[in-house]
Structure formats: structure tokens, C-alpha cells
Amino acid sequence: MRIWKRLLGLALCLCLCAELLPVTARAEAALPVTFSANGTEYKYANKKGNVADLTYGTNTATGTPNSRTSAALTSDGGITVSLETDYNTNYKLCYREVPVTVDVPANTTYSVTFECNYDLTLKRGSKKATATCQARIDDLGIAGAADSGTTVKFHWEEYNIATIVNDQEVTSGNRTYINPGGNENEGKEITVTRSKILTYDFVNNTNARKAITHYFGFWVVCQRASSYANQGKIIWTITPKSIAYTVNFDPNGGTVSTKNIKVTYNSTYGTLPTPTRKGYNFDGWYTAKTGGSKIVSSTMVGNSAGSTLYAHWKANQYTVTFDPNGGTVSTTSKTVTYGETYASPKALPEPTYPGHTFDGWYTEKTGGTRVTEDTVVTVTKDHTLYARWHLTPAKEPTGIHLTTNQTILYGKKPWFSEGCATDTGHTISWAWYECSADGSNGKQLPERPKMPTAGVHYYYAVAIATRKDNGQTASAKSPVAKVTVNKATPMISTKPTASTLDLAKSTALSGSRLTGGIAQNRNLTPYLTVPGTFAWKDGSTTITKTGKQVFSVVFTPEDTNNYNSTEIEVSVQVQCAHNYKMTGETPATCTKAGVKTYTCTVCNDKKTETLAALEHSYGKPTYAWNGINCTAERVCSRDSSHKETETVTAAVETTRAATCTLEELSTYTAAFTNTAFNHQKKENVVTANMLGHDYAVDFTEDKPATCTENGSKSRHCSRCDAKTDVTAIPATGHKPVTDAAVAPTCTQTGLTEGNHCSVCDTVLVKQTIVEKLPHRWDEGVETKAPTCTEAGVKTFTCSQCHNTKTEPISALGHDWGAWNVMTPATETTEGSETRTCQRDGNHTETRSIPKLDHTHTMVHHSAVDADCGTGTAGYIEYWVCSGCKKVFSDADGRDEITLDQTVLPFAHDLDTAWSWDESNHWHECKKCRQKPDSAAHVYDDGDDETCNICDYTRAIIPPHTHSLTLVPAVPATCVSAGNIAYYRCAECRQMFRDDGGAEPVTEAEVKLSPLGHTPSGDWSHDESSHWHECQNNCGEKLDLAAHVYGDDSDTDCNTCGYIRTITPPHTHSLTLVPAVPATCASAGNIEHYRCTVCGNLFGDSSGTRELTAADVTTAKLPHTPETIPAVPATCEQSGMTEGSKCSVCQEVITAQTTIPALNHDWQEATCETPKTCTRCHVTQGKALGHDWGRYIVTTPATETSEGEETRTCRRNDAHKQTRTIPKLPASTYGVSGEVHESDDKPAVGVKVTLVLGDRLIDSTKTDDKGKYSFGNVAPGVYNLVAERGGIIMTIKVEVVSKDVAVSTIIMPQGKTNSVVEVKSDKLEETVEAVVGNLETVFKTTGDDKPFTDKDQNVVNSGGSVEIKLTVTKTDTDKTSEKIERALPAATKVGVRLELDVHKTVTPQNGPTTVQQIENTDVLLETIIRLPAALQGKDSYTVYRLHGAAVQELTAKRNTDGEYIEVSPDRTAITIHAKLYSEYVIAYQERGETGGNGGGNGGNTGGNGGNDNGGGHDDNDDGYTPPSVPAPPETNIGYRACRRDDSCPIWPFADAAPTAWYHDGVHYCLENGLMRGVSGGKFLPDGITTRAQLVTILWRLEGGPETNGAVRFGDVAGGAWYTQAVRWAAGCGVVKGYDNGCFGPDDAVTREQMAAILYRYAQHKGYDVSAGKDTNILSFNDAFAVSEYAIPAMQWACGSGMVRGIAQKGGMLLAPMDTTTRAQTATLLMRFQSAFAKEP
Question: What would the DSSP string read from start to end of 982-1001?
């Protein structure tokens, strides 16, 4: 009953454990072990017999039937067996046989481990006697006792489980007989409960899976010393626990170091060995040689796999790279498989190389072995195959022809028409020869004949065909061509200049010297200057008259062989040298000019010299202060009545403000408007008293009080830093707070209690550190048990902080069992035996058992291909036994053959098509590429081009002298060819044996074939291998193989006789090597012993258990990685990659590598952004700014609508600017013209462009007659640009009031380019600029000219010279300080310009140079359209900064002839200049409507009372600036004018209906008051003369007839103005000068204009009282008004006719300035509008 309770409790525990197991646990597979409960039962009884003699094997049971057995299967695959003997017999034995079956794979031995649990019970009989009960279990093998009839004696000492003697358990063989005395133990039961592990082998030696059945015998024996009853019984529970077996490794063609391992059922296979095999990658272990299931280290061991695992292999694949060796190949690489042909999986590619023939793929660039598609891959790495080529020869050109006869002039190029036919893929070049008439004596020319000398020449050409792909050539000769060259007559392109002939010095023509002049040969381009001399045809000619005259000049060339002389006409200026003497003088005064008169003594020619007025000679100014006013005065030293006085109120500047303690100080500055007076200063004037302090009522804290220091407070002044009533603030003292104590622990220190001030944080009582407490470690717990190979771990825990520490427990080491034979050795194979560690059955060792008796020792010989290239035979793969010398075709020695059967004879595999080179033809072997039937070409004769056998076509090159170069001898080697020494011609490539070229040789004759290897007769060897050396000293080891020995004790190699040294056995001298634990920094080792003699390792001190280094080594512990952060690289600094290190030992696990600095990734500067790095965004330099092109019209303007034009930035075409084009005027005009070549023929296809500043107006091309035209052109000035073939010519075109026919443009012979560029240095609009005369720069040459003789030579040689004038509108803030300082006070800056002239010289061969030209030597026109805000100003002046000097340009020409012009409408300025640099257009504001004519014109009378006027509408010529602004609003009818061709101003070419003066001029023309001048002009900016003014008034009066004499001596009776002057004098409008003259041609001054109009108004009876009380003294120059003109000027100012001119410091009347015709017309209109009705 107790047993059943135990079983029930065990079952309950199992159920509870099952409930507690995690649901994720892996269920193990059931072991293939099956028990049977149907075994045979045996019962024996032998009263007082010897139990040791009992046997079983018969089915005889003796004794009472009360002895019984039973068996029952358990749920865990085991069995429970119960045996019980009879109680009443003396000697009893009860036996039960149990079959157990195991499913075992083929050829496998399963070691099955069983767990046996049992309860053995002895029940005492009723007598006092010794009682014994014993139990036993047997493995009866594959046959049970009943089946085999086997008798087995019962030996207690073997297989005994347990023995109970009386009341105690004893060991087998140690019986104890106890006489307890009495019956106190009768019926007592003694029970022993034990367990035991049993292991039995189940062997399956068959080749198929099989169920192996063993029979277990279970025994219980009970005996007693007397015939008293007792009883023995036992309950067995047997459960299979594990199955272990040995797995062998079959490398399947490879090699493996570990032959087998021990595995356990339901465990993983663990570490599996890795085999190796040349040319293959290991694919894993499988359960079958082919197919099967793959086994890996994590595979669970089950019942499916057998005892052998087979290696599976994948052949390695390698990349073959195809090097076309100069050619190209479509497939640059392919993948090949080891052991397969190169054609698998696809064929080898066929490369191409223009001009070459493919010879095959080779393993080396030179030499090497040829690889075909049948070649098997034996290389075990990626490799390269190289294409081999030979050049393809060129084909000779055919059908050559050449123009025969021609006659030309010297300088003309001969015209040849040569040609030929050639094969595709060839280029033709020509070599030219001059020769005799029959073609002999040819001399090669460097180029095609260009300029043969006068005479007869003969030429022929050689056509050279060159293959495009390889440069091989072939040639053919043309027929002879005749060229007759006649002398040329030079053309005089530039006539010589004749110096002026002064008759006073010479009257002969030779007195005029001829200079310059250019004669040219125009038969070639560029024209060639012909050297020679110019001379007067008759220099003795006598000259008798002055003026320009023409005479003949003869040009004589230096080269009279090729040139004729020529004659031209040259003009000479003849003059007379005047001899002037002074004949009269009128001295100058302060205010009046004087005159000197000179008369020529030769021709009585007169001239006058004006003496400038002396001007005032003022003394030093004096200054007087009166309070804040200052008066300045100066007196003229010539006339004391002439004084200048000015009183001004000073400007007050406070230099020191008043403070609490200081007065206010100021400086008075008197600034006089008269520039003769200096500014005056009066400093340190007291202008206010000191303020005094203003202290606050409340205190201000100056310094706060602290814990330890007093503070302070005071009352502050509100105006300054002054303080008063300074008072102390007491210190506050510390306010302590407690710093709590901190108790120490095992891991942290503590602190004592302290305190500090809560206000200032000062420590008052410092805390001190309390040391950490010691750990309290417990006894420790084994947390990892040690094994045979791994150390264990013991862990200790602190009872205070619960931290832990560990200590290692040394590994136990292996406890090896006995060796068991696994595979017996045979004559042909080695055997193997294994032993198992008793502590861990998974640890096994296997060693080999040598072969039995003698077996073949095979020496392997690899297959060698037959080599038809070297003529050597090949061999199949075979083996030779080193012992018996027999030859076999297999490694197992089954197929014996003869040595002759291994030989493979060689044979060439020739191509069917012929191959050839220049000398030979052959059939090439497909394998070795040799030429076994190579032979020289066969031709019929020396002119035959085609070989009679192979059809090779040779190139017959004209005979030449060989240029021979020595090709040195190269000896042949075993594997590469060589050559003898020979000579090769560098031109024809022919080879010769001698340096004289007398003994030709072929390529085959100079080539030396490879020698091939010559093996030595004796073996060479080292410790491991033997071989045959090559006798050619190439270093190759032939027949290399490892040494072969009979056994381990054999010292002589069976093949080469090498003798090895075998170390004799010795007694080990062992030293203990203590265990060293492994760390993450280094491996450790277990405790072991090392022999100090042989160095072998052992696991025991007796040296019986040998170990390897791997056995004793414990692996390094893994590192604890800690990341080393990456440092990114920047543009300028390098970075680091992310790394890692061990946080324990600090060893670097992953090393950081330097990341190079990225460098800036510059994005180039654009128009709007500077050069910028795209990574770090740092910038460099500035933005480029826009580089605008010309404006292009996108929408043309019409008369009714505005247009639009756009310009594009040259740097970025996405940047555009658009502006409006004003409406076209009512009338537009056409512009047309012609462009001719230099020979006056029409120039066709010339691009002609009409440009205004940076604006492209229109563009066209000339037609076949050289004509061009533009329509709808608005009036204005433009640049016209003619451009073709790199030649650019720019001229000026002016469109006024009708269609313009431009003069014929003659295109330059060479590239002399005149270019205009208009731009701005900002994004703002450019100026409208037009340039004239730029093309004239090229008309003269010289070293001091912009266009030099050297430049002319560049042009003549095909180069180009460009002169560009660039007009740049510059930043208004960048005017030079020098120009700013030079500007007068009243002058303002209008437009700032950079006018630059650059010359760019580009030779045909050579670098381009750019030079800035500061002096053009000729006057260029730069016409600047003024911005609208600057138009109509009073006066304009141009300032220029040239070098360091500021120069002023005005309407008056300077010494260089430079000047400016202001357009009549005051909208444009023309700068006539030679010097180019920084320019400023300045102006003066106009302060009155009448305008300022500028300068002095005419003469003034001595008494100032008489003034006259006049006019001449027929002879005025030219116009002078400046202009005036538009007139004020009026009510006259001209306001309705449409300003088109119906306007009376329209016909005048120099006047515009849209100008400011339109109203006045329209009025005067419409009413007949004014007319035009000669030449169809009006001259609006021309001066108004006195004659013109009185004529206008006379016409205004109606032109009345007058009679009587004219009282002025300078007014003729029949002059055009006589009637007007007579009328004006008669009615008192004019009076004339004191000298009795009228001065009709004198310019009318402003005061004269006022006086004449004043008198005319009085004559007409108009009210002139408006100005009688007007005070004109407010004008600064009022005293400059003549006395006679004062009433008139008062009237003009009072009536608003004159308002004055604004100047710095005041207003001016400018009474002496002249008046223009436009101003006069405007004043007359206003006069009539204000004082009279319309006429």
C-alpha cells in the first residue's frame, strides 16, 4: 500500500510540474524506445540450495505458486516490474524477462541510458536466523533466455543492485550473519529505496534502419540460514532518459579535420566541423551523399538522421574580366564556374578593335596561355583574360587625278583639283612635290604650293591612304601639273603723304617730302605689304601757286623679280609763310577788353589779337563783427571806387552746452556768398549762464548693504552725477540655515551636519565626509556548476546593500573512459576508435587505427593538356603506387593501365581561312595560335599588288631611303618567345638583318619560339615536398608532390629518398600549469600539465590523458561594447566614424577611422548670390551682378500704343528685365544703305543691326546686291553695326525728319573690329549712348597710335584686332572725391560714366591680349541722352578724372580739340574726346525763365546808354549750347499744334517739334517774325545777333518802308537788315555805339535784349510801369548791369520776363550772357502774350 501511495504522489507532482511549466517550453520528441509487458516469468525454489548455482534458461518453475511477477507500461515510455518470492520456502529466486525495442538507423549504435528506481523489501521469518534478500538486473542481449536457451549463472558480484542482510543494506559480497537472539524481529519488513543509471548499446550494422530488441532480466532472491520462512520483493520502474550515438563526417571529395562527434537525442548537434575543398564552397552537412536533409548546429538530434553526415559542395564561381587590350568588348566580364568550361553558361565574347584582327583570349597581356571555349576553369580566383591582336594593313588609293596646267599672277594661290578613290575606313592626305617636267627629281614640299615665284613650276601629289583605325598607310602618285606664274602689279592701298611745301623755303616739288604709303599684293588674303619706295615722278617741277595741287608718284618694289612698278597721284599743300607785324593796339581796362592788330609784310593779310579785360585787382579783404553780424569789404587797387562789401548773419553752433557748473559756449561762423571772402569764425562766445545743481528730495540707494558690509545712500542732482547728504546703510548680518547630515552606506559616502547663510550662501559650518561602510558578504551560492571544460561561478551577496560579486570555480577536466573501436581498420582503409568522458557523455575523442598490412601508396599525376604550340604531348590524370610502381587510372587502384596509355599526342587545329601580315600568309592554329604553314607572299612581279595564294593586297610605297632602328635581341624563355637582333625601317616597317638594309628578313626568321621546360633527372626536395627543377633556370617546380612514407616509423620517402628525422619516445617531465580564468581581454586555460621535453599537454599528472591546445584553452569572454560617438566631417575639418570599445578593458572593438574633410562644395557665384558652399553655406567674394545684354524688342511700339523690350542676363538667361518703349511719333522714317567689299563689290549676307545704347532696334541682312533697309525708325541718333565672318564695323547714323540713305559701308579687308558696349554697374537702367567716329581709329597706324603696325601685321596674318568703347553708367555714390572737390559750389552731379576703350588683339596662333587705351588720338563722339530729370538745365559741364588731374570740358575746344555739345532741345550731350576714363556730366539749376546764354557776345558801348541789335537769317552757321527749359503756360493758338509734319518747325533738320522751345519758335515762324538760315536749318542754339533782333521787331511791326540815309558806318545800304536798322534807329528802339557803329553781327546780351524790348514797348505805347519800383539790388550781380539798362532790367524783372539764375549764395541776372535764337523766340512770344494782342 505504501508503494502505491508513493506512485500516486509521484504522479501528482508530475501533474503539478506540468501545470507550472511555461507554455513556451519546447516539447521534446519521444525516444524511439518501446518496452513490452509480455515477457516470460520464471520462479525457482531450491530449498537450502546454493543460490549462486541457480541458472535460468529453461521454462521450469519450481516452488510454490505464491511467487509472482507482474509488468505494466508507464505513460513516460517506461515500464514498472514487480517481483515477489514465496514466503514459506527457504531458498527462492523470482525472475521476469522484459523485451525492450529501439528503432536504430542504418550503421548506427545507440547508447541508451535508463533511469532505474526501485524499492527492495525483506520480510523476516518467524525464526531467529540470518535472512538475505538480493536484487539484480541483466541485459540479456538480442535473444531472451527462453528464446536462446542460454544458461546464465547468478553471480552476485556482477550486476547486483542491492543486498539486504537482516535489517541493514550491505554491499555485494560482504554478507553479514547476525544472530539477533530471540524472536523480536520476526515478521519485520526492511525496505531499501534506491535509483541507478544504466546504459546499454543497441547496435545496427546493417545498411537499413532496423528495430533492435534487447531482453532485460529482473531478479529477486531471498534465502535464509535455517528452515524458517522469509520473503523478498521488489518494485522496479525503468524509464529511458537519453540516447547518444557517434556521428561520422564524410567530406565527400574534400577534407575535414574532425572525423566524428558524439550527439544526444533531443539536443542540438552543436559545433560542426567545416571541411575544405579546392574550388568549392562548403554548402553544409546533409543526411545523404546527394539530396537528404541539411543538418546545422542548431538542428535537433532525432531519429531521422543516421550516423554519417555528408558534405555538400557548391562549385565556386569567379569573375573573368575581359581586357580588350586596346579594343572594345560588349561583355566586359562574365561569371565562370570552377571545373566547367569557359563557354558555360554562355560563349566567350568577341571583341573588336578597329584596324586590328583578333587573335584570341590569353591569360597574360604578353605570353600566357590561350583560353578557348573548351578550356576548363582551374583558376581559383577572379582573373583577367587579355585580347591578342595584330594590325590590319591599309589599302592603296586608286583613280588619282590632278589638275594639269594653269597661269596665275604672283601672290595668287595655284588652284589644284586633286582626288582619288579609297576604301571605306581610310582617310586621304596629300604630300606635294615640286619636280621636273617629266616628274623626276621630286622634292617634297612642306605644304600645298601657296605662293610660287614668277616663272614655270611643275608639281605632282602623292595620295596617302591612312586607315582611320590603326594608322597603317598606302600611297599612290598623281600626274604632273604645270603652273605658270606672271609678275604682279602692287596696288597702292594707302597713298604716301606729301609734306606741306612752303614757297618761302623752296619752289621745287622735291621740297615736299613723301612719307608713309602702303603698297599691297591683293592677290592673296590677307593682303601682303610689298616693300618698296615712293618718289616723285619729276621732283624738279617748279611750283608757282599756293593751295592743294596733284602730282605723279612712282612706286618701285624691292622685289623686281615678282613685281612691276606702278604710278599714282598725290596731292601737295602749298602755302606761304606770312610775316606779321603789329600795326595798332587798344589797351584793356578793368572791365573792357583791348585789341592788337597785325599785318603781313608779304601779302598784307591782317589778324587781330584780343587782350582780355584786366579785371579788378582787389586788395586783401577786411572783416568787422557787430554782434552776430560780420561785414567783409575789399577795394580795387586800380580804381578805389570799385568796392565789394557783404554783411552776413553768422551761423551759431553751440560748442558746449550749459551745465550745473559751466556756461554755454558757441562759435559764430560767417559764410560769405562772395568766394573772394573767407569764412570767419568767432569762437568761445558765452551765450548762456551755468545752470546750478538740482538735487532730488528723496534719497537714492547708491550701494546696497550686505551681510558683512555697510551700504550707502544720497540725494542725486537731476542734471549731473553730483551727490549730497551721503548716508551709511548698516550691514544686515548672516541668516544661517541647516545643511542636514547624510548617513553613509556600502556604496556611498556620508556627510556631517553643517549650515550656511541663506542670503549670501557663505558656508558657516562646513560639512565633512563620512567614509563608506564595508560590505557584509554571505557564504556564497554556486550559481553555475563547473563542467569538464568550463569554470563554474560562485556568487556572494551583501546583506546591507544587496550588491553581488562573483568568484570562479575551476573546471573539472575530462574523465576519459576506455577506447572503443568504431570502425575496424582494413588493408585499404584506416579504422577509428572513440572514448567518452565519464562526466559528460557529449565529450568524445576519436583517433584513427592504421591500415592493416601493405596497401597501395598512390602518387597523383594531374592531367596535362597537349600543347601544339610547343610540340609537347599531354597526359591524362593517373596514379602510381610508390611501392609497387603500378599505374592506375583511379585513386582506388582498381583500374590498372600502362604508362603509354596516359600519353595524349598533340595536333594543330588550323583555321580554314588564310591569315596574313605584310610579309607572310598562314593558317592559324585555333589552339596555340601558331602558324605551322607560314610562307612568304607570292607575286608575279614587283608591280603585282595581290598575292597569288592568299589574295593579300600590298601597298607599293614609292622607293625611299630606309630609316633603320636596331631592335635588340631578346632571348626566348621556357614560356615566352624571343627574337634575334634585327633592324626595322621607321617608315615602311620592313625588317633587315644588317644596318645597311641589304638583307631583308621576315618576322618568322627573327622570332625565337619558347624553349619549354626541361626537367632535371634528380629530385629536389625540402622537409615536406619533392620536385624536378627546370634546367633552364626559370624557377618552375615540376611534378611537385608531398613526401610518401610507409608508416609513422618509416624515415625514407618512397619517391625521392628524402630522409626525415623522427624524434624517439621519451619519459614525459610534467609541470603543472595552473588554471587562468578567461577575460574579455585574453583567453584563459584550465589546469593541465605540460611536458618540458616535448611540450605536449596532458589532463592528468601521470601523462596518460593527452590534450591539445584547444582542449586547455578557455575562450575569451565577450567584450561589453560601449559606443564611441561619430564626429561628422565638415568642409574644413576632418571627422571620425562611429567606433566602439569595451567598457571593461577599454580595448577598441571597432576602430574609428578618419573621415577626410569634405572640402567646400562651391556653388559658383551668380548674378545675385556670392560663391557659396552648399554644405556649410559660407560665402566667398561677392555676387557677380547681372551682365545684361542688349534690349530686344518683344512688342514693337506703334503710334497709338507703347511697346515692350526685354534684355537677358548673359550669365543666367532666367534673369530678364523688361521696359516700356514709348509710342512712335506721328511720323517715322526709313534707314537704308549698301555694304560693299573692299573691291567695291556688293557684300552679301552681312548682318546689319540698328542699336540705341543697349537696345537692339532692328536687325537684317544684306541682299544679293549688298543692300539693307529698316522701316519705322523714330527720329534720333543710332549706331549701325555691320557684322560678318568675325568682322564688326560700327558707325553713327542720325535720323531727323526724313528717310536716311546711309553712305556705303566698306567692309574691312581684315578683322579690324569697332565695337560699342553700353552697360550699367548696377541693376538700374543704362544710359542711351551712341558712339561716332570709332571706325576711324583703324585708318592710320603707328607706334603712337591705338592701331599699331604690329596690329596691322596680326590682321594681315589672319588674326583680329578689336577696339571697343564701353559706356558704363556707374553708381551715383562712387564719384571720385577729386571730381567732387573740383565742382563749383552751384554745380550738381547729374550722370556718372566710365568711358573705357580697350583693344583686344587675337593672333591666328598665339595668346589673346587685352590693352586699355587712354588716348585714341582721334576725336570720338559719345552722344549721351540725358535722363528726363536732367533735361533742360541752365548749363552743362563735363568733368573728367584722367590720371591724377580733373579736367573740364566745355563748348570751347581745349588744346587737344576736345569739347562738348548740348543738343538744341537740351536732352542730350555729345562728348568729343580723345582721353577716356571717369566722366561726370554736371549742371546748374535754372532759376529764371529767360535762360542764360553763357559767355559774352558782341561789344558794349562806352557810355552804356547806346545799344543796338540786328540779325542775319541767311549766313548764321552752327549752334552753341546751352538750352532753356520749356516755356510757361500761355493762351496763344500754337498750343493746338499736333507737332507733326503740319508744324512749321518740321522742315528744319536741326529743330524738333517736341523740343522745349516749340511754342516760341512755332509762334515766330507762323507769324513771320523769324526764318531759317542757310542749309535748311533753324539753329535754335545759335546766338541772336543785333541785326536779327531788330529785323524780328521790324517784321513784328509789319515791315514798314523807310527812307533816308543810315547813320551807322558799319551798316551797308543794301544789306538784308538795312531797312530794319533804319526803322529801329528812327523810332528810338536802338541807338548804336559811341564810335558810330551799330555792330550788326554782335551777339545780343541779356541786358541789351531787355533794353531793346523795353524801348519797343514804349514805342508801342504799352504800360511799362510794372517795374519802375522794382529793386534789383537783391541780385548779387546787380552792379554789373550797365547804367543805361537799369530801367529796362527793372521792367523785365517786375513784369516777370526775367527771374534770374539761381546760384550758391544768391540769384544772378547775368546781364552780359548772350541769348540764343530759341530763347529769343520764346521771349518774343511771351512779350506778345503779356503786352500785345496777337498780330
Answer: EEEETTT--EESSTTS-SEE
The three-point CA angle 333-336-337 to 5° equals: 165
Spatial neighbors of 343 by CB under 8 A, at least 6 apart, are: 373, 374
CA–CA gap between residue 1564 and residue 1513 (Å, rounded)? 13
| Contact status, residue 327 vs residue 357, Cβ threshold 8 Å | no
Those residues whose C-beta lies under 8 Å from the C-beta of residue 302, and which sit 6 or more positions away, are 29, 265, 266
State the amino acid at position 1733 in one-letter form: K
Could you tell me if 458 and 482 are in contact, meaning their C-beta atoms sit under 8 angstroms apart?
A: yes
Q: Which of 867, 1120, 1132, 875 is nearest to 974 (CA)?
A: 867
- Pick from 1054, 1062, 1063: which is nearest to 1091 by CA? 1063
- Distance from C-alpha of 550 to C-alpha of 509, rounded to nearest angstrom: 11
- Beta-carbon contacts of 564 under 8 Å, excluding residues fewer than 6 positions away, are 487, 488, 489, 490, 557
480, 437 Cβ separation under 8 angstroms: yes
Residue 894 half-sphere exposure toward CB, CA atoms < 13 A: 3
Other C-beta atoms closer than 10 Å to the C-beta of 1043 total 19
Query: Between helices 1558-1566 and 1717-1731, what is the axis angle to 10°?
Result: 70
Q: Which three cell numbers stand for residue 1695?
A: 513784369
Helix (H, G, I), strand (E, B) or coil at 899: coil
Cβ contacts of 451 within 8 Å, gap of 6 or more: 410, 411, 413, 524
Other residues' Cβ atoms within 10 Å of the Cβ of residue 60: 9
Q: What is the dihedral of CA 937, 938, 943, 944, to 10 degrees?
A: -100
Phi first, then psi: give them for residue 1013, nearest 5 degrees.
-75, 145
Give the three-class secondary structure for 942. Answer: coil
Burial label for 738, CB within 10 Å (0-12, 13-18, 19+), is exposed
CB of 1701 within 8 A of CB of 1434?
Answer: yes
Cell of 170: 550491505
Q: Report the C-alpha gap between 1719 and 1701 in whole angstroms.
A: 15
Q: What is the mean pLDDT of each run of 10 residues along the chain (1735 residues)?
A: 39 38 49 86 52 46 57 90 71 76 89 86 63 73 51 40 53 36 56 80 87 82 60 84 90 89 88 89 89 89 81 90 90 88 85 88 89 88 90 87 83 83 86 90 88 90 88 88 90 88 80 90 83 90 82 91 90 80 82 81 72 82 87 85 87 87 86 88 82 82 86 87 84 86 86 87 85 84 87 88 86 83 78 86 83 72 78 80 80 78 80 85 84 85 81 75 86 86 86 86 86 83 87 82 81 84 78 88 88 86 86 86 89 88 86 88 86 87 80 81 85 84 81 91 92 87 93 89 91 87 88 88 73 89 87 90 90 65 78 89 89 88 88 85 83 86 86 89 60 33 33 31 30 58 80 80 82 78 87 84 78 83 87 83 87 88 75 78 85 78 73 86 80 51
Q: CB under 8 Å to 1241, separation ≥6 — which residues?
A: 1266
Distance in angstroms (rounded) separating the CA atoms of residues 1023 and 1045: 13
Residue 73 CA to residue 81 CA, distance in Å, equals 9
d(CA 1480, CA 1391): 6
First vs last Cα of the chain: how many Å apart?
164
> How do beta strands 231-250 and 308-315 pair?
parallel
Interior CA angle at 49 toward 43 and 52, to 5°?
Answer: 75
Q: Give residue for cell 593682303.
A: 527
926 near 907, Cβ under 8 Å?
no
Q: Where are the beta strands (DSSP E) in 746-803?
A: 750-751, 754-757, 763-765, 769-770, 781-784, 792-797
